[in-house]
C-alpha cells in the first residue's frame, strides 16, 4: 500500500508498505479517505520537531471508513461507517492517567509524531480509539481532531456566557476555540496577523477581530472590554510575543489557557501572575468528549468547511505542497491528502 514518509531533512517520499492483514481481536481496519497535514508535520518536514521519529509516517487528522472489524469489537462499529480516531496513547499508570486526564498522559505517543501515523491507505487501530463521525463525510471528518484541540482549551479555561474571550491565533486549532467559546455564549475577540484569517474568524462567530501586527493591541482591547481586558485568553500560536501578550492583556483574576509550544524560552513580568491572581493552564490534545462535541457541531452544517480546507492533494503532490507551505506558513488552514 502507498504511504507518505517524512524525514527531518526536508525530504518526503512515497513508500510502499505491506497492506495490513485482517484485524485481530479488538482491532479495527480503516481505509483512509482523507488525512490532514498539521503544524507538527510541517515542523517535522523542516527538521524542527524534536519529538518526531526520523523517518516518520505523519498523520493524525483522520477521515476514514471502517473496512473490517476483528473479534470482540462492539457491534456499534460496523464496516462502511465513516469514522475518525483518537490518535493519542495513554499508559494508564502516570499521574495524568490516574487523574483520568488521559489526554495529557506523561508517556503519550501521538500518531504521526512519536509513532508512525495514518498518512497511508490502511491502518489498524484498537477499537477503543475509533470515534464514529455520524453523518459527516470523510472529508469533513478529517477536520475533527484539530478543532477538538481548540474545544478542549475552552473547557480548560472554563469559559461561560459572561466571559470575554480573546483567542490568539486563528489557525484550525484557534478556530475550534472560537467556535466552542461562541457556543458557550461568550463574546469572542479573534487576534491574528492575517486579515484573511480574521475575516474567517468573524464567519465562525467572533464578535471582534484584532490584527496584532497593524493595530495597538492594548488600546483596542481596552476599548472592546471597557478597560477590563479579556476574562480569558487562549494562546494558540506558540511564540514569545503571543505568550507575553496573553499574560499582559488578560483581565485581573483572568484565565490563560496555553496550547501553543513556544520554540524558545519566554520571559514574563511575573508580578502580573500575583497582582492579577491569574489562573494559567496548559491545554494538551483533547478528550473523547471534545471529539464528539466537534462532530455534533459539524453535523449542523453551519461551519464554512470549504474555507477551512486550503488544498486537497494526492500523495504524489505532497513534497511540492510541503515546500510551498514552508514558504507560505501564514496562508494555510488545512491541507488534506486524499487516498
UniProtKB/TrEMBL annotation:
Signal peptide: none annotated. Keywords: Oxidoreductase. It comes from the Bacteria. One of its GO terms (molecular function) is oxidoreductase activity. Residues 173-299 form the Alcohol dehydrogenase-like C-terminal domain. Residues 24-133 form the Alcohol dehydrogenase-like N-terminal domain. The keyword Oxidoreductase applies. It holds the Pfam family ADH_zinc_N. Gene3D superfamilies: Medium-chain alcohol dehydrogenases, catalytic domain (3.90.180.10), NAD(P)-binding Rossmann-like Domain (3.40.50.720). The keyword Oxidoreductase applies. This is Threonine dehydrogenase. It comes from Prevotella communis.
